Amino acid sequence: MNGLDSVQYTPQGLAWTWGGGQLRNVANAALIAQVYAKKLTAAGETAKARHYQCWALAQMRQIAGDGGRSYVIGHGNNPPTHSFHKAASCPPKPAACGWKYLNTPHANQHVLHGALVGGPDADGSFVDVRNNSASNQPFLDYNAGWTGK
């Protein structure tokens, strides 16, 4: 958290810990901060709890698009449309599906509503291209913290 750790932040205010798929760390840290805030509130430490709640909410809002773009497919402002996902990039049936569609410049044919991608670089830049798997690939573990309460 700002002032309490050595975590780097993007210019937009998103915590950034290391390379590919770093939003999983941010989402999971935000979930842990929310859980800890509930414990602090129960212990009567409401001011400290608010600090953790505000930090977690700010991070989740950045993920959802407050920094200028959403990193959640199908949600918010300017969400990713070229996720590195075979099934999402394939044409509708009855056309055959294959990895060759990963190299097309067109937006994915199928929207993975709610899937969280890896996220931006340390400088806050994000290029929505399918072959950038480190930034634009959704994984189940990315969504664990994003969907938790």
UniProtKB/TrEMBL annotation:
InterPro entries: 6-hairpin_glycosidase_sf (IPR008928), 6hp_glycosidase-like_sf (IPR012341), Glyco_hydro_9 (IPR001701). Its EC number is 3.2.1.4. Keywords: Carbohydrate metabolism, Cellulose degradation, Glycosidase, Hydrolase, Polysaccharide degradation. One of its GO terms (biological process) is cellulose catabolic process. It is an enzyme of class 3 (hydrolase). GO terms for molecular function: cellulase activity. It catalyses: Endohydrolysis of (1->4)-beta-D-glucosidic linkages in cellulose, lichenin and cereal beta-D-glucans. This is cellulase.
